[in-house]
């Protein structure tokens, strides 16, 4: 059974935090297998928590996507600083917020996709803390999608943002500890400690209780489709926010779900046509046509490729209605959201031209393979 970094602290296996004044970066999923929160575990382990920090969605996980969160106070009186406000600068802790801290402890559950912003919050925290001579301590957690299969080419200069600050594949097959180790290596930062997991097998499935790390990541099934499902954010389609199965369910009032399910065959999944009415977000209170993606064989299901193919099919079938998102996205307003998500313009351009997206997906596999070789230096667990 996997024991997370937090679990190891709870069991008394890690004593380096005892007597230290710490800042804690955490969210609702920062819990042990018995659901004890990191704040309680660290206090019991002898650390003094002098400040809390909440990533996107907030320390308590209440906020929806791209909604700024204000500062607050914890029941113990310590400040809760937001790391998601109204500007890119708000994503990093300030020197004033880090004052008096000996170590910045980060315990965030990632979901294995480049777009999921918690790993980039950790990377920005590392850089801010190291600039002040403060050590960052990562309590590592499993990647719910495993540590082997990767998808979607790394992005590059001009397409980096808070949904991908460093160039990793969309489905990166790394833990948060490994990604922050990569960032530390690339930035020449030594002030990093990773409390590694005990017993994590990168080839095994998820073994721990699932606690939703953000409001629209309610289940493990959501995480399985998310490397593809998040692409919907770059379009005028509903990604299912405002339903109980976001990212698995998607569509729009103009989408014919039956035609989509008939015309697109996805290995390892069944597309079930349906109608739905989001309670909020895109197309709120409107009846949308679309599909729910039911993963039937996780080993064969490639979420990124699956959703790229479905977007291409919808764009072909609904040329007058389908559109790419043009609004500001994660503090960037000069690059289309879909390009930030895909790491470049190639997918969008191919779909706009009505070209076969398989050629793009094949080229991306070569880039993923190259990254697979590069990442060996930063892996903390056998592959």
Brief summary of the model shown:
This protein is α/β, with parallel strands linked by helices and 383 residues long.
The averaged pLDDT comes out at 96
Instruction: Output the strand order for the largest sheet.
Output: 3-4-2-1-5-6-7
CATH fold type of the largest domain: Rossmann fold
Strand percentage:
5-15%
Structural class of the helices, strands and pairings? alpha/beta
Q: Indicate the low-confidence ranges by residue numbers.
A: none
Q: What's the CATH first level of the largest domain?
A: Alpha Beta
User: How many domains make up the coordinates?
Assistant: 2
Instruction: Please state the CA-atom Rg, rounded to the nearest Å.
Output: 20 Å
Describe the largest sheet.
7 strands, mixed
Shape: globular
Number of strands: 10
Give me the number of helical elements. 11
GO molecular function: peptidoglycan beta-N-acetylmuramidase activity
Protein name: DUF1343 domain-containing protein
Domain Peptidoglycan beta-N-acetylmuramidase NamZ N-terminal: 22-220
Domain Peptidoglycan beta-N-acetylmuramidase NamZ C-terminal: 225-381
